[in-house]
Amino acid sequence: MIWPKLEHWLEWGERCALGRCAEHTRDRLTSFAGHRFALFLRVFSPLTSIASDEIEVPSGRDAWHLFETHAVARSLGTGKVFKRWIFGRMGKDPETWYDSVSSGATLILRNVVREYTVRELPRDRTISLESQLDAGYEFASGDELLPSVPGVEAEVHLHDLDEIARTLEQSVFDMSTPRERIALVAKSTGLSLDHPLVNKAAGCGRTALGATYRNYVLSIGGMLRDRYPDDEPETLMLLSMQLLERIKKITFLWFEAENAFPELSLYIEEHRAVES
Questions:
Q1: Model pLDDT for residues 21-39, shown as the tens digit of each residue
Q2: More confident residue, 272 or 196
Q3: How do the residues of the chain divide into helix, strand and coil, expressed in percent and rounded to 5?
Q4: Domain boundary assignment for the chain
Q5: Over the stretch 143-202, which tens digit does the pLDDT of each residue have?
Q6: Crossing angle for the helix pair 23-44 and 233-258, nearest 10 degrees?
Q7: Is there a contact between 143 and 230 (Cβ–Cβ < 8 Å)?
Q8: N or C: which end of the chain has fewer CB within 10 A?
């Protein structure tokens, strides 16, 4: 997928509704919502009686509609709407604005999917809140997946996680292989893993490259569980997501600086020019 840029989030914030935004902004934001929605559905699938791979995932536009309705219509205990809270997280440093908005939107989407799971999907009535659940991240007990409301505590929590991710990003990146880096470049620029130029740069086909990327993501999760064994699984999942996003960014900087794959680099440059 192609991630939204800060300008796309700001356009949505200014125009109040996605339908009033430019087409490329709508495409980026609905892609973001669809991707995050699918991720959190896997996380919360143990609360249902349906296997995670059998749950019908809403389209990006439907996912965004649920997010936007929640962000505009629902309010915090202070009376502020979630949407205002998302943009209110931007501090004085413009360099942090994108991460602040994106992580805030992710936290809201987590709550949206939790409510959707309880409201729309058949529930496994035999599950105990104390029983251990498994959703790909060795997820926690049911009571840890109950709804939460973003507020000051959540904001501080996300800021702390981002600081941890920042301290880890370089060392984790340094341990990545060239093939893993090409997979990260493809994912961060929206290119398919079966694109001929991606496969040429990685030296393998789509199946092997997909396994490489999947194993890399899982290895980040495993590393974080080993490093922070006392932290809650949901906290580690959010940290894993933020760390992965940071690694994608510095991997792309590496890709541009190395200039070892001129054909792929040129294609990505042209591809991004068309998208923008």
A1: 999 999 999 999 998 888 8
A2: 196
A3: 70, 0, 25
A4: 1-150, 161-276
A5: 333 334 444 344 445 556 777 888 899 999 999 999 999 999 998 888 889 999 999 999
A6: 140
A7: no
A8: C
Task: Note whether 97 and 8 are within 8 A (CB).
Answer: no
CA 35 – CA 182 distance, rounded (Å): 20
- Hey, CA dihedral for 181, 185, 186, 190, is it positive or negative? positive
Q: Give the Cα separation of 246 and 165 in Å (integer).
A: 7
List the one residue out of 200, 193, 177, 192 whose CA is nearest residue 251.
177
Whole-number Å distance between alpha carbons of 275 and 265:
15
* Backbone CA torsion sign across 222, 152, 10, 69: positive
Q: Is the pTM of this model over 0.90?
A: no
State both tokens at 173. 């990146």
Q: What is the DSSP letter of 55?
A: S
**What is the dihedral sign for C-alpha 272, 269, 267, 98?**
negative
Please tell me the distance from the alpha carbon of residue 232 to that of residue 13, in angstroms, as a whole number. Answer: 32
- Reading the block at residue 273, the tokens are 């020019």
